[in-house]
Predict the 3D structure of the following.
Amino acid sequence: MPTEFELIDSYFANSPVNREDVVLGVGDDAAVVQVPEGYQLVAAVDTLVSGVHFFPDVQPDALGHKALAVNLSDFAAMGAVPAWATLALTLPEVDTAWIRRFSHGFEQLAQQYQVQLIGGDTTRGPLTISVQLLGYVPAGHAVRRSGARPGDLIFITGTLGDAGAALAVQQGMLDAGAELRGALSQRLNKPLPRVGAGLALREVAHAMIDISDGLAADLGHILGQSDVGARIDFDRLPVSESLAGLVSQLNDAAQQRGRMQIKDVDGTRPAPWPGYLDFCLAAGDDYELCFIAPADAEDRIISELRKLECPMSVVGEIEAAPGLRARLADGTVVTVQPGGYQHFGNDP
Amino acid sequence: MPTEFELIDSYFANSPVNREDVVLGVGDDAAVVQVPEGYQLVAAVDTLVSGVHFFPDVQPDALGHKALAVNLSDFAAMGAVPAWATLALTLPEVDTAWIRRFSHGFEQLAQQYQVQLIGGDTTRGPLTISVQLLGYVPAGHAVRRSGARPGDLIFITGTLGDAGAALAVQQGMLDAGAELRGALSQRLNKPLPRVGAGLALREVAHAMIDISDGLAADLGHILGQSDVGARIDFDRLPVSESLAGLVSQLNDAAQQRGRMQIKDVDGTRPAPWPGYLDFCLAAGDDYELCFIAPADAEDRIISELRKLECPMSVVGEIEAAPGLRARLADGTVVTVQPGGYQHFGNDP
């Protein structure tokens, strides 16, 4: 069995990306890079665990892609430029074919964003992948979660719920034809981070987050850290044609995956919203951006994102009163909590 | 069960270290820090896996200490200043007492070196800990593995083999009294990185590495990357009083853990060196520094390390001919290879 060092060396040392700012890459005790003058260092880390974040039989190239993509998505949410990555890879065995395909998936995405792998640690153990992404942002210009102000609009890139639906299909809760299944699983297994959009929004967004745990939870982080509340309109949540085509099945599927905890004002009657909303609000892994910007910036945002061919929707508004509220199609207003709903007026 | 976010938030967000150069720490999509002007960024990552790098019943505070210590040791070997860390922690269950003790061990060492935890990802799965350490070095002054030159001396800080002996004690291969057992297991479970020594050696060492896989393998990396060879004197390898006290048992223990592959010139007779050398050369986890410096720097090095109360030994010399040779007590010269010995002249 090759040593850890040889493993990393042979499969990851010859990165197709060779940045001029890398002083010392893979193969010493640590890596050395040059952060450009006037910029601050940005660092994100995300771990994927077999059986928790992905099915053990997932395609290795998709896994390599996703391990980097989830970190690129964090960078998108900061408006930061990705540049360098380290990889902590724990493998049950040395399967060279697997490693080659994993590194291929990782490198293809790395090449797209000119991210160079500068270090890593390959160890034996249960399959776990932890990528640390490093990069930079002009000093003082990182987009935080804490800048949302009452009156600002809430924007979402792309569509929500597809990754959650893909998972439900794989778990046998949803029945989809081959084509639909393929489109959905692409969203779950090979998410496309919105790095370009994040950079384009850096000077206009008051706050930004990527949607990895579902809109309710992630928007909830912005609200909490900005000390504000919000109202979203369920009718305006962007759904893909794939998800729309499954709407008739989504009530049952939502039931199976455990519907949101819901309570009417008298504590008994479930609220009447359709099951697809569970997928938009409380299913993770979409990796779209949720960002907050002033209403008068809407035209500029539309124009910037159009250049990138990045779809965008306005889904609600920041309000001074704490909490996340939602307006249903019938005009009913409910309160939404990360991991569960409660009817408006019944906030414990 | 608290969410990942809440876990990190409650146990790791309130770092006792609050650096002025941290623009944005734990709690956003990524962290933002300011690398000082004129310095380059240094990054190291090391993973510890339960059952592979530590016994599942190890004290959680020792584990928190070691997860950071192994990375600090990499920084020591670069002559770099540690500053910020991220923690990817995969846990089978949310055991708050365990997490509290783990974070206590981590933070105590972090505080000693003024390292601030700026981000992390806590996930559910088999116990795995991956720490990424970030910091800086004056531009162009990182100590690499590639600078050793023929005629340079080979230096070692501290003593070798204690961590390997501690492991052998735990595995029942060595019999040690309570006091000796305690001294040895301290070396294995709570190694003390040589960060100060690494910084003191930055302007004088031609090459440096920390000894994590055993001297033969780690010095071998320096030789390979510097395109040189070396001769070490077995008699000069520094051993602790603890290890010296076990010498009579170490032949048997070395036998049990699988002795080095050894061959005499005729391919049959095992070489006659004592078992303790197996522990010095091929047992890992000592986290001492092996560094290479010109002979005329020896006085300066002695003086610098004395100020730090850091023990130091000269164990050999860099030579032009490739390969690692060793002189035994009886004058015999053998070749040493990472993971095994071969008698001089029998190098395949």
